[in-house]
Every structure is written in C-alpha cells, then in structure tokens.
Amino acid sequence: MQITVIGGGYVGIIPAVCFCEFGFEVGVADISEEKTERLRNNSTDIFEPGLDAVIKKFQQSGQLKFSTDSSDFFNDSSVIVVAVQTIGEKGEDCDLSYLYDAINDICASLKNDRYVAIIIRTAVPVGTCTAISKNIKSLCPDLVQGEHYDVIAIPGFGTEGSALHDFMYPDRIVVGMEQDSKKARKVIDEIYKTIINADVPFIYTNFETAELVRYATTGFIVIKIAFLSELINLCERAGANVDEFIQSIALDSKIGGKSLGLSSGIGGATYPRFVRILERTASSFGVDLKVLRGALESNEARLLGVFNKIYEKILNTSAKSVCIFGLTYKPKTSDIKESPSVYVIKKLLEKNIKVYCYDPIFVQNLNAQFIPEYLKSNENFTLTNSPYEAASQRDILVVMTEWMEIRSLDYQKISETMNKKEPNKPILIDFKNMFSPSEMKDFEYIPQGMFPDPNKPTFP
Fold first, then answer.
1. In sequence order, which residues have a C-beta less than 8 Å from that of residue 57 and are 6 or more positions away?
2. Separation CA 337–CA 335 (nearest Å)
3. What is the residue-level pLDDT of the chain in tens, covering all 460 positions?
4. Which of 207, 235, 288, 397 is the most exposed place for a label (fewest CB within 10 A)?
C-alpha cells in the first residue's frame, strides 16, 4: 500500500517517516519548492531529534519520496493524509485555505473504480471535517461515501522533541468519522497494525468529538501548567522549596505527568494557539470556558512576573546588559513561537537593555531563519555562537531553557568573565533550577521559587 502525505512540515513529515517504519511506501507532497528540496537533501526546516537521519534512511531505501506535485502520488495511493499547516502567514491562529486547496486537489483525483481513505491529521476547529465532507459530496456527486472514499479525522497528539516516539507509541488513537465504514476500518487496521498489536486504545467516534479532543487535551495541559506556575509563586512567598514541592506533587498518580515541571510560561506553536481556538469555539456555542480563560490570564501574569524578577534585579544593580541562555520555549526543538524567553527579551529591549543570547539550536546560524526580524534588526540584540562570548562582560545571566548543553558548561569560567555585582559575585537567575546553590557558589545564584529578600532566609 502507498500512502500520500500532503504537507511536508512538522505535522506531515512525522507520520510520513513513521508509516515508512511500519513498512509502507510514502510520497510527501508540499507546494514549497524550497522545503521539498531541503527534504530531498535529508533535512527539514524544523529540529526534531533523529528526524533527519530517518528521512535519509527511507529515501535511500526508496520508501520515501518528495514532490511539489501531489498528482505524482495520488493515482497509486489508497490513503491520503492531509497534514497541511493551518497557521496563517500573518500569524492568524487558524487559516484553513491550504486545507481546502488540498481537498480540492484530492477531489480531482477521486475515481469510481477505487477506494481512497482521506485522513485529516491537521488539527482543525470543530465542524471542519463535516464541512470537508459536504465539500467533497458537492464536488464529486457521482461518488459514494463509504464505497469510493471516506473522510477520517485522526488528530495527532505528539509533542515537539519526542514526536517520533509519540507517534510510534501513542497513549491512544482517536478516529472520527461521519458514519461507520467497513472500508475505512479495514484501512485503519492495516496502516496502524503495529500500534494495534501494541494494545493501544482506539476510540471510534464522530468528527466533532475527534476535533474537540485535540484542542481540549491542550487545554487541560495549559490549565495544569498555569496552576502550577501560580503555586510556584506561592512557594516563593511562603518560603517553600520549589523543587521538593513539585517532586511531592508529581508523585501523586492523580496529578503527576509529563507536563508537571518548572515553567516560565506557556509557549510554542501549539499550546497558546490551540487554547485560543478552543476558547473561541466554546464561545461560538455560547459556552464560557472561565477556567481556561483564567489560565490564559494567569499565563500572561506569569510571563510578566518572570520579566519583573529580572528587571527588579537590573534596577537594584544598575545593570546595563543581560545574557539569556535559551531562546526556544523548551529543549529539543527549534520552536520559539510565543516563547517566554522571547517575551522577556522584547521587554528588556523596550527598556534599552542590551541582550546577548545563546541557544545551542541556533549555533553557527543554524535555524537562524526562525529568529524574528524585529529581534535581528534591533541593535541591542545579539545572537552568539558561543555561550562564553554571550556571557562575557555581562551584568546578569538568565537561564530560560533547560538544554543539557547549557547544564554542562564551565560556569567557573563564565563567572570569571562576567561583571561582578554585590556581593562581588556575578548574578545568575535560573528559571529552570538546573543547578544547586552549592554548584553555583561563584555566583549570586537565584533559582526559581526564590528571590532575594533581606527579611527572609535563603535556601540552605
């Protein structure tokens, strides 16, 4: 069986290589000549651990092919996975124009002598798949749903940095269909056989449920992160040990999970955007998601609080320059969309503070195209290839992203090159608690959950 994936971006390339791993031949179609050529050269415009290597592996085996023309693959494919981007070029939360362009192309290829399963992997607002189904019926009135084609919603739940693993070993697969279809179930059983054999739960439901589950899952995670951020603020005020507090909470099976950890704010291409879409969807049905809206407001307050901590130290020490370690919203990704680090940098630049940044994913201008132009063009912003260069002669060092490369640096060397403040030590503000105070004796070390207060004892 050959599978066509429409969309060579993050949402498309992950299932493409994983279906190759399952033994299928896969053709990936993307309208961007630049992106397609990059994929043919075994690389992507994103960073995902291990992805470039598997692209190369399956291209060499002949299982994986790329084209800018989807018709190169349609005639030989019985499964078409639609995985186009829905983020508008002007930053809109949801632009479905690429999705409908893809559906129109698919309709032109459908025939009455074969069956095609059309899988919508792109996360779409509630009601979209029903609209797609109506559109296909209108464009292909001679074809019968369930006999010649089916529209199937199978949203992805992968996380940046572990997307390959998450696809191969999912918590569950949610399958949305307008009506039950024997042919659709047969296709799903075949292409997901490896996952089915691993006893992963498959939930068959309608379009609306599958669409809503994707956004609601993000909503739950965001509420969890936002509430934890508020509790961290409480720990700081009350004098509680943040690391031990989180460890204690995480061990409760009713609470703990992957998203329970130190956060400087909710960021990335998915979380904030999906939450806004979910909130608007609820509003369109007359439902007020007060808890979710509160999480968004809490996140805004959290981001401002992170900046205020840094700026308070700047004012107290007359600092003129800040070094930021970490631009991405988390490690193992090149995603800086709505990153808390970028938020902080923008606020610092507005105060005419010189900002020097280091992030291992942007070394030697790698992935530099992801840095916003308003940052690159600001004379007070400098992106360096060396963490030691970034920190040298700076007044304050701030850790914003928990890259392991940042953890393994020579901080004694860094402390010797930084400007000394009171009490004759350089300042290190660590929002990820990557170090212990004993490790950072050469610094005035300020971890998450603690800020200098002359009336309170510091952590031992």
1. none
2. 6
3. 899 999 999 899 999 999 999 999 999 999 999 999 999 999 887 888 999 999 999 999 999 999 999 888 998 899 999 999 888 765 567 889 999 999 999 999 999 999 999 999 999 999 999 999 999 999 999 999 999 999 999 999 988 889 999 999 999 999 999 999 999 999 999 999 999 999 999 999 999 999 999 999 999 988 988 898 889 888 888 888 888 898 898 888 888 766 677 778 788 778 888 888 999 999 999 999 999 989 889 989 999 999 999 999 999 999 999 999 999 999 988 888 889 999 999 999 999 999 999 999 987 666 677 788 889 899 999 999 999 999 999 999 999 999 999 999 999 999 999 999 767 899 999 999 999 888 999 999 999 875 444 344 333 3
4. 288
| DSSP code for 80 | E
Q: How many CA atoms lie within 13 A of 200 on its CB side?
A: 20
CA atoms within 13 A of residue 14's CA, in its CB half-sphere: 25
CB-CB contact of 75 with 110 (8 Å) = no
Burial (CB count <10 Å: 0-12, 13-18, 19+), residue 165: middle
Q: How far apart are CA 103 and CA 428, in angstroms?
A: 52
The answer to whether 9 touches 39, Cβ cutoff 8 Å, is: no
Cβ–Cβ under 8 Å, residues 27 and 7: no
Nearest to 80 by CA among 15, 177, 157: 15
| Residue 321, number of CB atoms within 10 A of its CB | 19
Nearest to 181 by CA among 139, 155, 146, 221: 146
Task: List domains and CATH numbers for the chain.
Answer: 2-204 (3.40.50.720), 220-447 (3.40.50.720)
Question: Before 423, cis peptide (omega within 30)?
Answer: yes
Secondary structure of residue 447 in the 3-state scheme? strand
Residue 81 to residue 7: CA distance in whole angstroms = 9
Cα gap 344→349, rounded to integer Å = 9
pTM summary value: 0.85
pLDDT tens digits, residue range 133-166? 999 999 999 999 999 999 999 999 988 889 999 9
Paired residues of 421 in beta bridges:
425
Give the CA radius of gyration of the chain. Answer: 24
Alpha helices in 285-398 (DSSP H): 290-317, 340-350, 373-376, 387-391
Distances (CA, A) of 87 to 41, 122, 345, 355: 25, 11, 24, 29
